[in-house]
Design brief:
The chain is an all-alpha fold. Helix 5 crosses helix 6 and helix 7 crosses helix 8. It starts with 18 loop residues before the first helix and ends with a helix. It has nine helices and no strands. Bound molecules: protoporphyrin IX containing FE.
């Protein structure tokens, strides 16, 4: 849109092979059925209290009660953030759900993407200092700190996974 600068585009779903193949190979290990199966217990731990809460109210909306809260908890785990980060991620990404149809919601959307990117840049730095399990550590180790382009790509890939997953 004329006059609107753009936040770095998500990566995976905006490129074709061979670029897409290279990027997909970087994140694929976090999405193997084996890795996803290993998340099942954690997913059940997140879902159980959400379901219990539903029993307390006669009517409820799946989007606000489940779909808003479940993905960020699990994606947080996949990225290797500390537990119970979903509230922080929900605060950061709230603007992502804005429809981007007017100036206000466009700004909310862009602010959310910037906050998410800043959050992930800090997470990458943390995982470089203290590598752990999860996708962020794996990617941080695959991308040398000296490679600025790859560093930018790394952040965009993680933004892509959070946005696409949420
Ligand atoms: C109800 C759940 C979901 C639906 C219906 C869904 C649907 C889709 C669809 C239709 C695409 C293809 C888009 C295209 O080709 O342009 C896609 C791509 C993608 N999705 Fe999902 N998705 C879901 C959940 C997730 C989750 C939980 C994650 C990550 C944690 C995720 C990450 C991605 C990524 C990274 C891509 C790009 C893949 C690529 O280009 O290689 N999605 N999704």
């Amino acid at each position: 849109m004329p006059g609107r600068d753009f936040v770095p585009p998500s990566v995976l779903d905006t490129v074709d092979p061979p670029e897409h193949t290279r990027l997909r190979a970087l994140v694929q290990p976090a999405f193997t059925s084996h890795r996803i199966d290993a998340l099942v217990d954690r997913i059940e731990t997140v879902v159980a209290p959400l379901i219990d809460e539903l029993a307390e109210t006669p009517g409820w909306d799946v989007i606000s009660r489940i779909a808003y809260r479940l993905p960020l908890a699990v994606i947080g785990d996949m990225l290797g953030t500390q537990r119970d980060v979903e509230v922080e991620l929900m605060r950061i990404t709230a603007g992502l759900l804005a429809e981007d149809t007017d100036e206000h919601s466009f700004m909310a959307h862009r602010t959310a993407l910037h906050s998410l990117r800043d959050y992930l840049v800090e997470l990458i730095a943390e995982k470089r200092r203290q590598p752990g399990l999860g996708l962020t550590s794996a990617l941080a180790q695959a991308v040398p700190t000296t490679d600025e382009v790859a560093g930018y790509e790394l952040v965009s890939l993680l933004v892509n996974i959070v946005v696409a997953g949420y």
